[in-house]
Amino acid sequence: MEYYQLQNGMQLPKIGFGTYKLTGTNGARAITTAINNGYRLIDSAYNYENEGALGVALQNADIARSQLTITSKLPGRYYHRDQAITAIQESLYRSRLDYFDLYLLHWPNPKRDQYVEAWQALLDAQKFGLVRAVGVCNFLPEHLDRLQQATGVLPQINQIELHPYFNQAPQRAYDEQHQILTQAWSPLGRASVMLQDPVLNQIADKYKVSVAQIILRWDLQLGVLPIPKAIHSSRQLTNLDVFSFTLTPDDMERINQLSKPDGRTHQQDPASYEEF
Ligand SMILES: NC(=O)c1ccc[n+]([C@@H]2O[C@H](COP(=O)([O-])OP(=O)(O)OC[C@H]3O[C@@H](n4cnc5c(N)ncnc54)[C@H](OP(=O)(O)O)[C@@H]3O)[C@@H](O)[C@H]2O)c1
């Protein structure tokens, strides 16, 4: 495994494991398998309703807590400063953990205008030792600028929808300029038609790997941390196996050219989409 380094010195594995829809016994089993298959960063969320499965999975996995980077996320309904800390404590109890490595605001929900308050609560949680590093998801430059103006502290991470059909070049440039690590959610486009794209398939044939491996390798070469989800052990393993080949600049550019302005999988534009 290779690592990215956050501004606060924390090392993050370059690939993480997504857990959306991994709930209950089957979900817990898939997460344990992922850890035993080599994943060291696990991405969860209060709203995935799987922090319980995460806790069971961690207990059953054959690894020390200190070797893992565990993420959860605060839902918009708990953005009041006095509710946020309790919500994080509840996340911890469900996950059977003493601390999270990363805790993120899940959506900016700008019409509600509470994300600055929620950000202050995450900074409190960090001071209290509930979380090691704090970040956001789905934040646009205007939201990040506002956090900086209001608190003087920018997130360490911005987790955004990012895949070849929506490559987020402007947001990535902003994040890089502000030393914010970009994480890619739905890196495989939720296994949509993108995986049948002829250009991606041509490139996969050339390197004798799968389309998923080409996409995840492209993420790494962009300096992005992808968190693919896979219930199948064989997919978990191949998705991690992307450190032994390098895409040429020409192939990187061919993939960059696939991006489309309306390429989001579910048209969830953070300027207007809300989630609580
Ligand atoms: N912050 C946010 O707002 C936000 C939003 C969405 C997601 N996320 C996070 O990002 C994670 C990843 O995104 P996602 O789950 O939406 O989608 P994704 O990782 O892009 O795609 C998951 C789908 O791809 C399939 N898959 C995995 N590996 C494959 C392979 N090698 N070949 C073919 N298909 C493969 C999976 O199948 P099987 O599972 O059947 O193996 C599953 O159906 C989530 O799980 C969640 O942790 C965050």
- The outline comes out as globular
Give me the strand/helix succession: EEEHEHEHEHEHEHEHHEHH
CATH superfamily: NADP-dependent oxidoreductase domain
Radius of gyration: 18 Å
Sheet-strand content, in percent, reads 15-25%
Instruction: Give the CATH level 1 class.
Output: Alpha Beta
| Lateral arrangement of strands in the main beta sheet | 3-4-5-6-7-8-9-10
- Describe the sheet with the most strands: 8 strands, parallel
- Give the name of the CATH architecture: Alpha-Beta Barrel
How is the topology of this model organized?
Blueprint: E1 3-5, E2 11-13, E3 17-18, H1 24-36, E4 41-43, H2 51-60, E5 69-74, H3 81-95, E6 100-105, H4 115-127, E7 131-137, H5 141-151, E8 157-161, H6 169-177, E9 181-185, H7 198-207, H8 211-222, E10 225-226, H9 233-240, H10 249-256
Parallel strand pairs: 3-4, 4-5, 5-6, 6-7, 7-8, 8-9, 9-10
Antiparallel strand pairs: 1-2
NADP nicotinamide-adenine-dinucleotide phosphate binds next to helix 9.
